[in-house]
Amino acid sequence: MTSILILNGPNLNLLGTRQPEVYGATTLADIEKMCTAWADAANCTVTFLQSNHEGALVDAIHAARGVQDGIILNAGAYTHTSIALMDALASVELPAIELHLSNVHARETFRHKSYIAKVAVGLICGFGPRGYTLALDAMKSYVED
Ligand code: DQA
């Protein structure tokens, strides 16, 4: 059975109350429920994690090696800054999808740069919470094809 890690970075624990005009009213717990329901119906396993700490995200990526088949990463602001997360993904040699709720390319220019994209198989952004299940579908197909 395909196993997928969904990893969420800083400030995503505040979804629902954080800048709802940008990120909407759906909480991270709601998104986790959507992902679990999607995985149950698709007969795959999902592990859902969030951390505000760069090192904890690096540790979670390392721990995925040999356990998970792919990683979906919404690295939040670390997307635009973190060579450590990029190196971690490159080191574990698992397929990764970069995910964002918002369309980062329609926002400030500092959000246009991504270290994660350099080591990702693809990128999904701008579809809000639905992006998570779109990413699951994309990852499942990528792994099983
Ligand atoms: C985000 C986009 C990032 O630029 C931002 O720092 C976030 C959320 C998104 O999901 O749209 O924290 O990753």
Keywords, separated by commas or semicolons:
145 residues; globular; alpha/beta; 5-stranded parallel sheet; 18% strand; binds 1,3,4-trihydroxy-5-OXO-cyclohexanecarboxylic acid; Rossmann fold
Task: Summarize the structure in words.
This protein is of the alpha/beta class and 145 residues long. It has a single domain (2-144), classed as Dehydroquinase, class II (Rossmann fold, 3-Layer(aba) Sandwich). 38% of the residues lie in helices and 18% in strands. The protein has five helices and five strands; from the N terminus they run βααβαβαββα. The chain has helices at 20-23, 28-42, 54-64, 83-92, 130-144; strands at residues 3-8, 45-50, 70-74, 96-100, 122-125. The chain has a five-stranded parallel β-sheet, with helices on both faces. Strand 3 (70-74), helix 4 and strand 4 form a beta-alpha-beta unit. Helix 2 (28-42) packs parallel to helix 5 and helix 3 (54-64) packs parallel to helix 4 (83-92). The mean pLDDT is 97. 1,3,4-trihydroxy-5-OXO-cyclohexanecarboxylic acid (DQA) is lined by residues 11, 74, 76-77, 79, 100-102, 104, 111.
